Prior knowledge:
By secondary structure, this protein is mostly helical. The chain contains four helices and no strands. The protein has helices at residues 3-11, 18-29, 43-56, 67-75. The radius of gyration is 21 Å and the shape is elongated. The N and C termini lie far apart (66 Å).
Amino acid sequence: MTRAELHELVERLPQHALDRTAVLLRGLSCGRIDPDQAWFWDSSWLSGELEADQEATPEPGLVYKNASAFKTALRGVHRD
């Protein structure tokens, strides 16, 4: 791919994808992401990673609506 083709591709990106794309491009350009490992950031690969993580992670248990509800629940725990 040429730089011109890459620029054209960036121009066609949907607005909601710009931030995520910028993270990847910044990581590649400053050396934080090894170009040989960029395949990991492919959307199909990441969706597979997410699926595997969800399968490996148990249900989160009780989820509180906000910090206040969580703190109230903590105060209700009896300590022996």
